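FORM 7B: Structural annotation worksheet

SECTION A. Query
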Amino acid sequence: MENNVLNTLQLFRTKFFSGLVDENMLSNALVTKPHQISPVISYIFGRFDQGNIIDFITNGTGRTQTIENREYDWDVMIEHDKAIEIRAAEWKGAAVTTTSASTDVPGINGTPFKLWLAEKWFGPGAILAFDDKDYQVRVVGEPYQDGDEFVYTVVVADGQEASYIDPQQMARGKQVSRNGSAYEEYSDEADIVNYQTPFKLRNQLTTMRMQYDITGDAYSSVMVISFKDPSSGKQTMYWSVYQEWVAMRQWFERIDRQTMYSEYNARTDGSVHVFGTNGRPVYIGAGLLQQIAPANRVPYTTLSLDTLDSFMSDLSYNVLGMGERKFLALTGEMGMKELDRVLRAKATAYTLIDTHFVSGSGQDLALSGQFTTYKGLNGVELTIKHFPIYDNPVYNRKLHPLTGKPLESYRMTFIDFGMRDGESNIVKVVRKDRELSMWYTGGSVAPGAGHAKSASTLRSNSRDGYQVHFLSEQGIMIKDPTTSGELYCDAE
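SECTION B. Predicted structure
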C-alpha cells in the first residue's frame, strides 16, 4: 500500500528523508525545480500531514493560475433577465404609489392602464407577470421616459371582461418580470433583447516570507530519535532534516491560514497605506472568507435539518448546471459532528459515495477516509473535509458557551468546487516564478555542501551556520462568489 501511494513521489520523499542530508537537501531541489516540486509538496502536506488543505485542493489538484502582475481582475456574469421594480401605477385617474389597498379594479373589461417602472427592460408585446403569477399583462406600444422612470401601457393578458389586476400587486416596491411575448398576424413590433455587462472583481497577491537558522554544530548533531523513509527503509537522525521538516510544515500552515482569513487592504482608489520597514507599501489580498458573498453567510446555534436543507438549496440554486453542483465543506471537529448528526437524519436523501479529485494531469487521487462525499437531489454533491485550522485554540480563542470548544470549530465553509467550461470556480493565483521561492545564505555550512573545508570556498557571510529563506507571492480567487457560502455558529 505504501509503495502504491508513493510511486509518483518516490524521488521527493527519498531525498527528503534520507539521501538529501549530505547530497541535495530539499531547499536545493526547490531552488532548481520549483514548478515541478511545488505541486508535489502541496500533495504531500495536504494528503499526509492534514494541515494544508487549501493549498492541497487548489495547487495540489491543478487549480492554479500564474500571473505576472500583483493585481488580478475577473468578471462575474449574472443572469440576463431580472424582475423590475414598480414605482407607481395609474388607471382611470386613480394612482397607487403606496401599499394601501384600493377598491378600484384596474384593467377590467380590457381597459388599458399604466405602470411606472424603474428601468426600460421590456418591449411592445412582452407578457409581464406580477409577484403573484396569476396576474399577467401585455405591454401595448413603446414605453416613454418620465424622469428616472419608464411608463408602460398594459392590458390584462387573458382578455376576459371580468379579469383585472389586484392593486396590491402594483404597490410601490413590487416587481414585474417577463414571461414571454405575444403578437398578432403580420405584426411589425417585437420584444427587446436585454444585456447586462459582467461586474468585475479585483484582488491582489500577498507576499509572505519566513526564515530559519541552523548553526554549524546543529547541522551535524544527531538526535535520539530517527526518521525513516517508508519506501527505502533508510533512516536519518540529523537535526537539520528535522528542522527543515518543521519549517516546511509551519510554512504551509501559515499560507493556509493567510489564504483563509486575509483581508484586502487597498483603498477604493487602489492605494495601500500599510508600509514596511523600507517604506514601501505592504499589499494584502482578500482571503477566501472575505470573497464569499455576505448574503450567503448564515448563522445557526444548533444545526437543524431545515437550516442545512435551505442553505444547500440556495447555494445549488445559484449553480444552474446540474452537473456542476459540487460543494466542498471545510469545517472543524465540532462542525463535523453537527453535519454528521444532521446527515444521518437525512440518510434517505443523501447517499454516501466514493470521493475522487481530478488533478491537473488528469489523474484521479483517491481520498477515501479523508474526504466524505454525499450525493443528494438535483445533482448536488457535498464533500465534507476536516479543516484543522478551525480547531486550533491558539488562533481561535472565542469559545462555545456550552462545550468550551472554539466557536470557529463549528464554522462550515461551503466552497463551490465545480467546473465551468473546464475551469475551476476556486483557483490559487501565483506570481510567475514566485509561487514558492527558497534560498539560503551560507556561512561555515551550506545545505547540500556541508562544512567548508578550503579557503577557496566562497560563502556569503562569516556566520557559523546557514540561514534558509522562504518566499511566496500568491492569492486566492473565487470566480463566482454567489455560489459559495458558510454556516457559522452564533452562540456567544
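SECTION C. Observations
The chain is about 20% helix and 30% strand. The chain has two domains: 1-79+198-492, 84-181.

SECTION D. Sign-off
Analyst initials: ____
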